[in-house]
Every structure is written in C-alpha cells, then in structure tokens.
Amino acid sequence: MADPRFYPSSGPQPLAAVAAAAGARIEEGLAARVFRGVAPLAEAGPGEIAFLDGRKHLDALRASRAGAVLLTAELASAAPEGCAALVVASPQLAFAQVAALFHPHPAPVRGIHPTATIGAGVTLGEGCEIGPHAVIGDGATLGARCQVGPHALLGPGVVFGDDCRIHAHASAVCCLAGHRVTLHHGARIGGEGFGFAPTPEGRFVTIPQLGRVILGDEVEVGANSCVDRGALGDTVLGPGTRLDNLVQIGHNVVTGRGCVIVAQVGISGSTRLGDYVTIAGQAGLTGHLSIGSKARIGAQAGVQGDVAPGQDVTGSPAMPVKDALRAALHLRKLGARKPSAGSPGGKPRGED
Amino acid sequence: MADPRFYPSSGPQPLAAVAAAAGARIEEGLAARVFRGVAPLAEAGPGEIAFLDGRKHLDALRASRAGAVLLTAELASAAPEGCAALVVASPQLAFAQVAALFHPHPAPVRGIHPTATIGAGVTLGEGCEIGPHAVIGDGATLGARCQVGPHALLGPGVVFGDDCRIHAHASAVCCLAGHRVTLHHGARIGGEGFGFAPTPEGRFVTIPQLGRVILGDEVEVGANSCVDRGALGDTVLGPGTRLDNLVQIGHNVVTGRGCVIVAQVGISGSTRLGDYVTIAGQAGLTGHLSIGSKARIGAQAGVQGDVAPGQDVTGSPAMPVKDALRAALHLRKLGARKPSAGSPGGKPRGED
Amino acid sequence: MADPRFYPSSGPQPLAAVAAAAGARIEEGLAARVFRGVAPLAEAGPGEIAFLDGRKHLDALRASRAGAVLLTAELASAAPEGCAALVVASPQLAFAQVAALFHPHPAPVRGIHPTATIGAGVTLGEGCEIGPHAVIGDGATLGARCQVGPHALLGPGVVFGDDCRIHAHASAVCCLAGHRVTLHHGARIGGEGFGFAPTPEGRFVTIPQLGRVILGDEVEVGANSCVDRGALGDTVLGPGTRLDNLVQIGHNVVTGRGCVIVAQVGISGSTRLGDYVTIAGQAGLTGHLSIGSKARIGAQAGVQGDVAPGQDVTGSPAMPVKDALRAALHLRKLGARKPSAGSPGGKPRGED
C-alpha cells in the first residue's frame, strides 16, 4: 500500500469504479466489492488490485493473494480462485489508470504563495498554484491549473499552456511550452548552448545564443536534465517526448513525437530525431545527425552517424545490434584467450 | 594550510590532542609540542601534520619537512629526523580524525532564518539550523541538530533523523531518512521514476509512482545526483552508502550497506546491490539485476547481467576484469595492425 | 530573427556599424544600408547578416538571400549578387561580434532585490544586480557589474571579480573567481569532494575537504555541472576554460588555460590538464593523470593513463585515434562475421 503520509487515497473504491477506470468489463455480482488500493502481484492482498505484466509472471499470478488482477484475455484463465480477472488490452496502461483512481495527482491549490515573486505583466490562467519562493519573470504567460513548485523559475516572456507542472528548483528561460508539460526537480530549460569562437589571441568569445526551446504538449523533462536553447532557431522536443534524469540536449536538437530518452543520455547540437525514437541510458549522439523514426539506440551506445528509421543500433562506435552482439561475443572470446605473439594481434605470421 | 576565510581553525593544538584524535601513542616528551594544522606530505612544514599514504610515498616522506606524520608501524622508521612518527593502523582514517580536530565541521547555528517557509505541523528536533529561503513541507519531521541549507526543500511528511545535513538547493520528497544523512548541493531525492504506459493512440500515460525513498544512517548523496522514489514499494540506499555527484538511481533500486558509487554512474530500476559494492565512474547498470556483496564494477562498465559476490567486472558489455584487460589488449593490437582483406574480420583464409 | 520577447534588438544597424563590429572593410557606397539582425545562411533575408562556415557551405551561400555575409577572403567571390561580402579572418568570430551588436547581453540592472539575503560584511562592486531570493554569505566580495540570478547562492567568504554572471540556482562555496566568470543554471562550485576513510567496523569517515576552487578569468561552468573543492590545496580551472553542462570535476583537478570540456565528461581527482586540452562528450578520466597541452580526447573515451601534449586519443580504454579507428573497424568486421568455435577467439584451426 502507498504510504498515506505521501499519497492520500480516494479509497476504498468499488470494483465497478475500478473496472470503469481500467476500461474492463466485470461480472455484475462483483461490482460492489470494495478495494483499498493497488499493489505488486507478489504483495497484494484481497483488498488490492494488481496487474500481470506478461506471461513470464504467470507463476506469481497463480500464487497471488490479490483480490483482482488486470490482465489480457488470453491469460485470464490463470487468475487463481478468489481473484477477479479484469480483462484489458494493456494491463500496464490499465494499472496506471487504476492507480490514478486511488491516488489522483493532487490538484493545484489555487493561489500565489506570499513569498513568490511575480513580475510585471504576468498572465496566470484560472486555478494556478504558485509555490513558495517561486519566481516568474516579467511578461510570462501560464495557462490554467499550472503548478509551479518551490524555488522554480520561469523567466521573462516564457509561455506555458494548461495543466503544466513545474517542480521545485526547475528553471525555464527563453521557452515556449504546450499543455500538460512537466519539468521535474532541477530541470534546466533554455540555458545558453555551448557555442563560442576562438580569437587569434586564444580567448573564446561566446556566440550569442538567440534561439528558444519549444516543448510540445505532454513533454516531460527529468530531474536535473538540461535542454539548451537554440543558437539561432529553436531546440524542439516534440509532443509526448520524455526525458529521464540527467539528460543533456544540445542547442538546436529537434525531436519528433513520443521520443523516449533514458537517464544520462547526451545529444549534441543540431541532431534531429524522428518520431518514437528510444535512446537507452548513457548513450551519446554526436551533432548534426539524423535519427529515423522508431530507431532504437542501446545503452552506452556512441552514435557518430545517421541511423535509418526503425534501425536498432548499439555499441561504441554504434553498429546494428546483431553485429554489436556478435562483436561483443568475439571480444569476450578474445578476453578468455591468453594473448600471444601470434594472431590475431601480434607479429604477422606467414602471409598475413 | 586551509584558507581561514573558509575553514576556521581550532589550532594550535598540542601533539597530545593530535595523538588522542588519531588514536596514536607518542613519546611523552613530545606531548606539549604544538601544531597549526594539516598539510600534504610534500607541503607540510614543522608546524603541520601529514600522513603517509603507503609505501609508494616513502621518498616524499624522507624529503618532508612535516613536524609529524601519521603512518603504519612497519614504515615508522622512515620518518626523517625532527618529524614525529605517529603510528596508527590506518593513516588515512587517522588523518581524517586529525583534520577534523583542527577544522571541525561547523555546528548548526540554532534557529530558523526569517525567510524560511515552515509548513503546518512540522517537528524540528533540538538545535536545528534552517537556512534562508529553505522550505519545509507540512508534517515533516527532523531530528536534533539538523542543518538545512539555503533554498533546500524538504517535502510534506518527510522524516529525517538526527544530525542530518541538507545542503543548499537539495530537495527531498517522499523520503524517510536515518541519522547523519548528508544531501549535497542540488541532490534530488524522491522524484517521480521514469514509468509510463503507451496508449493505442501513441500517447504515454504516467504510471503513478507511489513509493518512497529510504535512506539509511550515514548515507551521502552527491551534488546534483538523483534518486527516484519507488513505483510501488521503495528505493533504498543502505546505511553508509555514498553516492558521488551526478549519479542516477532509478526507482526501486535497493543497495545494501556501505556501497560506494562514483560520479555519473547510472543504475536502472529494480536493480539490487549487496553490501560494500563499489561502482566506478560513469558505469551503467541495466534494470532488475542482482549485484553481489563486495562486487566491484569498473569505470564506464556496461553491466547487463548479474554479478556474483566479490566479482570484479569491467568493460561494456561488462566481463570479468581479467578477461576485459585481455580483450582490451587484443583490441589495442588490432588497432596497431593495418586492416586487410584477410583476417581477422574478412573472408577467412588458410592458416589464420 | 531572434524572438523579440526574449532578445531585445539594437537594430536596425547600418552596415558601417556591422562592419566595424566584425572588423571588416566595406565599400563606402554600402555603409548606410541598414540591417535588422542576424540569421543562418539558409534563412537570412535581404535585411539580415549571415556567415559562411567554411567551403562546405558554398552551395548554401550561392542560394542565400542574405543581404550580407561574413566570409574569408578566398571565398569572397562566391557571394551572390545583392549580398554584400564582409571579408574577415574568422567568420565565426565575426558573427559572434555582429550578433552581439544586434543583441547585446543585457547589462546588469543595478540593485539588490528586496527578497535577496545579503550577509554581514559583504562587499559589492559598482553596479551589481542581485536577483530575487539570491543569498550571499557573510564576508563575500563581488567586483563591479556582477549579475547574480534568482536563487543563486554565493557562500561565506567567496570572491568574484568584475562582470561575473551567476545564473539562477547556481551555487559557489569555498571559491575564488576572477573576472568575467560565468556560472550557468544550477552549476555547483566548491562542494565536498568524494573522500572518506573506512573504519575497522566498516563505516566510512569523511576526510575533511579543506581546499578551495579557483576559477580563472573568463571561466564558464555549464548548467548543473559540479566542480568539487580541493581536499587539501585547490581545484583550479585555468583562464578561459569552458565546461559544458553536467560535467563532473573531482577534487584537486587542475586545468590550464582555455580547456574545452564537453557535456557529461567526468574528471577524477588530482588529474592535471595542460592548456587548450579538449575533451569531447561523456569521456571519463581517472584520477592522478597528466594530460598534455592541446591533447584531444574523443567522445566516450575512457582515459586511464597519461596523454602526451598534442596527442589525440579515443576509445575505452583510450588509445591513439588512428589505432582506435582501426580497432573499431576490426570490431565491425568481427560483428559482421558469424561466430564459430574457431578463431579469432577459440583454438585456432586450419580451415577456419
């Protein structure tokens, strides 16, 4: 169960409400049965809802004491006795919806904290919550029901749409954002890109960074991640794109819709991603690349060239996954082998 | 010598006090000799204490002008004339203790800065120091003598034990912490994990993250590091675990006691570490792994499988250190060799 | 064109002023022609100035509608009709100067925001701007015309020279900085280094970190980057050194003049860099290394040994670039090759 100190509960809820949230049909006789909340399959009790994350967890399901389980039709018969089977197309999505039924995200508490600093000509939509010590610069515009956390900074002239959540210590300058955008703690949006020119005397002169950051609807930027503004023109994160924590996005990077960028990834300036590109943790992309839609880039990959749509690459330097796995296998074999004066690396022998 | 603008000194101190702090015995005739502070072996003068960090620095010891040196019994005879030998089991540990004698960590200055924002129902232990613009949420509980720096945020309901240090700009939400826990500047504890489910239309729906972060006694989290809270259940850093700067800890990661995690490491969700695991800089661990106690993971390693207790791995993908060194050696040899149409990669030929 | 909500313009400007800013000579007849601003070659219109970044963009130049272009003498004849050629030694540098003519960095607005907290004995130079909720500790000294952003923290006793820019949420403690130093959003200067000694009982005792951070003139530290202070002695970034975002600098690292350190690089304790060293993104350097002047370290490189002046290395473990490229080529070939029981890893066999 979620700790009530941190997660107030709307429960108990009747199964009818649970099924409605999940988009599942249930036997009418069960509709009034009440549940307290959600839990993992292995820990759920009779008053809790769990979900089955694929066939590999069938054993856990059979042993589960959960009162109800969200699962797909083909696995529904595996639910043990006493556990109501809630059949859905995506148990994970349904679980998200049911969890949000029990623990809805706290609605904004309308008002401006007395310690907040609001600039001249700021427009706040209906029902915004502005937290302690938040700073909103002159001429900024926020839509309805935005939550701006403690110490957050929205710079002069920025625009955010409705239902945005700017968590504590996040900052955004030179930024235009859509609806339902979330910036997590300490995210840095719109900082100066890394651009400078050397002088003949060996000094560096900053090239004025005169662009913006455009965040599409439902973009999320993780804790302490950085998205630099464009040098000229814009850095763009397409609608639904999600960045995990400690990600670096260089100036003039452009992503399409629904890209997923895992923690500690770095993308250098002017690289462009299509839609639904996924990049696993700690991968790095050099600048000015083109990454096709639905391409998948492996953890710690070092991408130095374009990637075609739908292609899976990994390794540093990156290559197609099949090749990288083979190369890794060879490398392991090399590792298991005592080096000698001979092949493959030593003094050439015979005709080699 | 430490800059007195930043490090007030308790000195001068008699050698008797130094020896007591270090747990060293000294000749009685030296007990009253006074010292001003600590310094590296190469720079210490007659009024300063240095330490010998192993046999490889014996030459530096012989040339040193230090007035006293902390060293092990077997190397004690190497101290030059005029340099008092303070024999201890661990010179490094003794040095830490002697340095803290001269420059004790500033005690909290009891009180709440007038610009701080303290929520309803907050419990502060005896002697806490709450800095300017700090924010403590409703119902939070802090033990005795905690120091909360400027702009730090402790969210509603969090619990911290005695003698915790929350440095400037750090934030902790959904967190239960033990005694003597330290969060360095900009550390982010308890943010939402990276969990979401796709809809049929290609949108992503956040899976409510309903867990907590549990920090054991004496845990330290480095500057701008991020520890996400559990999705369901908890993310746990065991007692004494230390994270360097810019580290990423995913939701539901669990570490044992005394793990050491160097800068820019990333650990994905639900991976579990035993006790005293060490992970060198920039290494990455995928999710749902089990890393045995006292395992050691090399810098930039990419760990994609379980690691047995006491095992040393490195490389990306990670393999046992001995194998990785050999593989690297082979790779260097390959690098030194002109590629040809033949082996090792091309069409296989005859005797290769 | 730069968005006027974020970038107020000094334009229009006569070409004479543009040429003066760029150090270019122009035909007298053109001096009075006016321009509105700067733009990329492909987007610039007749009222805008672009620059030619080398021969590879000659086609873009020929197709450009720009009213004027900054370029080198040898390419000047390629400017299309109606596009004034402004001949300069470095078009990139000249572009930086012209962009700054149209969009000068906003001068500090002299004054201390009423929500800022200024300690006892603070010295502020002429014309400083201290933003909302900024905190300046006792005894700190700032030169003339410094800008301290919202929520920034300058700790007790720190010293900054003239014309420094401390952006929002940045913090600096135990730090002495020169003139024209810039800390970007959330940069962390002077935190405790990662130093501790184990006790016989398996606890870790922090070794007091008693050094400072010294930042030379014109140093820049990127968003959310961390520079730990020295353990004993100092961490030093030499004049003109630039750190991108999310960089980690360990205690007692010393860099020379004009080093360029790209995003997410990590440098471990006590490593020393000469002048004009460049380190590409996500590279890692272990501690106590010596990196010679003008050495260049590739993206994601893992440097475990000294690097000679002027040497280029890459790969993990790092090797000379030429060797690393060859090794990568071999690795690609290995990847393209089906593994077998035979070579290159197993027992060599005749017919393989």
Automatic annotation (TrEMBL), chains A, B, C:
Catalyzed chemical reaction(s): a UDP-3-O-[(3R)-3-hydroxyacyl]-alpha-D-glucosamine + a (3R)-hydroxyacyl-[ACP] = a UDP-2-N,3-O-bis[(3R)-3-hydroxyacyl]-alpha-D-glucosamine + holo-[ACP] + H(+)
SUPFAM superfamilies: Trimeric LpxA-like enzymes
Compositionally biased spans, kind Gly residues: 343-352
An example Gene Ontology CC term for this record: membrane
One family name in Pfam for this protein: LpxD
Keywords assigned by UniProt, alphabetized: Acyltransferase, Lipid A biosynthesis, Lipid biosynthesis, Lipid metabolism, Repeat, Transferase
Annotated region (Disordered), positions in chain: 333-352
GO biological process: lipid A biosynthetic process
Keyword hit for ATP-binding: no
Metabolic or biological pathway: Bacterial outer membrane biogenesis; LPS lipid A biosynthesis
Catalytic machinery residues: 251
Family from the record: Belongs to the transferase hexapeptide repeat family. LpxD subfamily.
Stated role: Catalyzes the N-acylation of UDP-3-O-acylglucosamine using 3-hydroxyacyl-ACP as the acyl donor. Is involved in the biosynthesis of lipid A, a phosphorylated glycolipid that anchors the lipopolysaccharide to the outer membrane of the cell.
UniProt name for this protein: UDP-3-O-acylglucosamine N-acyltransferase
Name of the gene: lpxD
